[in-house]
Amino acid sequence: MTEKNHFHSSGERAWCPGCGDFGILSSVENALMNLGKRPHEVLIVSGIGQAAKLPHYINTNGFDGLHGRALPAAFGAKAANHRLQVLVTSGDGDIYGEGGNHFIHAIRRNIDITLIVHNNQIYGLTKGQASPTSDLGMVTKTQPNGVSTIPFNSLAIAITLDAVFVARSFSREMEFTTQLIEEGVRTPGFSLIEILQPCVSFNTVNTYKWYSERVYKLDSPYDPADKLQAYKKSGEWGEKIPIGVLYKKPRRTFLDNQFKPKDLPLFQRKTVMKEIISLTNELFE
Amino acid sequence: MSFDLTIMIAGEAGQGLNTLSNILLKVLARSGYHLFASQDYMSRIRGGHNFTKIRVSDKQLYSPASASHLLVALNQESVDLHGNHLSNPSLIVHDLDTVQVNKAGGICDIAVPIRKIALDSGNALYGNSVVLGILTALLKLDFSILTTILKASFATKSVEHKKGNIKAATDGFKYLLDNFQGLNTPIGRVKEKKRMLISGTEAMAIGMMAGGLRFISAYPMSPSTGVFTYVTNKAGRLNIVSEQAEDEIAACNMALGASAAGARAAVTTSGGGLSLMCEGISLSGMAEIPLVTVNMQRPGPATGFPTRTAQEDLDLVLHIGHGEFPRFIFAPGTAEEAFYTSIIAMNLAEKYQVPVFLLGDQHLADSYVTLDKLNTNRVKYRSYLVKNGTLKKPYLRYKITKSGVSPLAYYGQEKIHFIVDSHIHTEDGHISEEMNVAKKMVEKRFRKLNGMKKEFPGPTYYGPGKAKTLFVSWGSTYGAVRETIDCLLAKGKSVAMVHYNKIWPFPVQESIEILKSRKDICVVENNYQGQFGRLLQRETNIKTGEPILRYDGRPFDVQFIIDTFEKRQK
User: Fold this and answer.
1) What is the pLDDT of residues A78-125, one digit of tens each?
2) What's the rounded Cα separation, in Å, for the pair B564 and B570?
3) A73, B257: Cβ pair inside 8 Å?
4) What is the pTM of this model?
5) CA–CA separation, A100 vs A147, rounded Å?
6) A63 and B279: CB-CB below 8 Å?
7) Which of B239, B245, B414 faces A40 most closely, judged by CB atoms?
8) What is the sign of the dihedral through the CA atoms of A217, A221, A224 and A227?
9) Which of A68, A93, B229, B463 is the most buried (most CB within 10 A)?
10) All domains in chain B, ordered by first residue
11) How far apart, in whole angstroms, are the C-alpha atoms of residue B66 and residue B333?
């Protein structure tokens, strides 16, 4: 990248040095630039957590709302203005824990947004408690006997619910992550890109080294249209961890049923007073 | 001669009580009568016991009646439950073969072979059309109005179904004329005129749409579901996107997302759902995102009485959402007030970028009244979004201004971008840990109150200027209190009333003006703690007298208030 990226913002980032979030931020900036987007055309929605600070560190529109509630807010914004390119960037605690119910229903609803989950398998902002994706046995301050609750397999759930685009990456693989984000954004409908991201302060198990030794890229002849195979891949964790596009299945998006791309956005439409008058007239019938 | 007649239609869920009542209401409204219809129903789809009370008069009505003059008993239970509580004299219409009436003094028994006539018309299901024919004859209404409405009501049904119902109605009409000549029904004549028939639900829904509603999201919950359903069914015609959310938390945050992107947004719910929206409302306060929340109250706590009425959530909406932020609360007293207030609510939410509550209840939502018209020009939609291309860089989403209100841009505007934020934030919406930023932003948000206090008229007064007892109503208690005043004035009592629709910001000065030298102030409200009375005392430092409270899930009627008032005077 030699040309100046207009999504890049200067200023302090309140992340720990070496945090995986830096790589993800660069990948998001680069993907948006490569896609030819301009800052006013994009909206990044987040919840609460270290990952959820991302909209503050990038030159574009942002909505930094409540813990766990990024997806409903993103849905509302996209419905109000379908011309906006809407992305959600938040963590595993935010999306899978506090917002688990919304994660399920956002996939069903299939609104055209790109969900980027920074998965560090730990709670960073609250200083090191287990997250829904923490591996079994991980000892934390609030799980002193080790995590005994099985990890949330978000990819398997997304595949089960026929999310249109399901991918995984690793924050150190910046170029690869950038490409996946570009593809996710280009794909109409709900795209999930989970990015494995080491937490250098609180996760002493799933480190850069740990991930680097395990991740491998999915390559042909792997076919992301094959649901059963995708489902099988989503269960692969431990010795080897696949990254890349696990599953793809095009389907109509929520707004396809409401607008055509060239239609005036909802928020700019007017109340038809003639219709209001006709509603009041109907009350005489 | 003035008249005031109440018809009770009673039966079990699944007997078509609603359709029957709605058609009768339409026939009466089209004939020129003034109506007030209230519904009493159980939280079940089949069985149980439900009834609708339709009050008919030649003058404008505001509240349900206490006793009924005419009972339409669709099953035996209806006679057993209500037969002894009718006014004297009274009439009972019922099926000759399946329902028995003990002819006590004053009861005129109108036993008609309803089921048999229906079967002769082709189907036992046409029974309610037989009843409609009987009532049309009994109330001396124009039969052709009934047939027009029946045809419209069954427009989507088969020809056979339509014909069968018309025949059933005709035979019911004839049967009554042939067999019950010279019956004296206490209904007077009015000049024929089409009247508007409207429920609080419809009034609020149409009002919000007239106020520029673009996005609505909700999770179904009685008694608020009607507003959401009404808007959803008109969404396409009115450029609205409606979405049933997975829960109230999602509904609230969806609306906030839409609103932040420039679309006027509302959510509808009842107490339990509102509890779940608590954090979202706090976000509306902090991020200064306009949001209109309709809360149709029902008795709580927890699941409470799902289909009954209450005014128990006043304290909740006064305080809902952690932290401190300004808000508007309105509690319209009638369907007419609900219509105009809802338009204003949509405008004010955007003008001040604050949460606005429309506080209704089951009684307001489900009651039908007749009106001459709604004036769609009286209150107009007005946009407060900045126009494209008029903004100067750098745009500050939370610019500190004298009024406390910052220019409201929308996402996607050429050459600018901004962030809305839930933290303590700077003028450009970024997270701040600075104490001075916090202080300035808190003060900025609360400066909005200066403008907000001047919006919307204060309490309205009814009755003679000087009165010994001043009644106070808020929200849906307006109607019963107003008619109580008329009734007590006619008896020579010295009474008047003041009604509150604007609850917050509390109209302090206007209240003190009205209340200061009053000897006896009597607040009437549908809760146990006298929540509005306590608010009134807190804000004005004026002591109120013993309130009249009702907390059994039922609305007030004139008799209830007068009985309690008389005990109170002793």
Assistant:
1) 999 999 999 999 999 999 999 999 999 999 999 999 999 999 999 998
2) 10
3) yes
4) 0.97
5) 19
6) no
7) B414
8) negative
9) A93
10) 4-194 (3.40.920.10), 198-371 (3.40.50.970), 460-569 (3.40.50.920)
11) 19
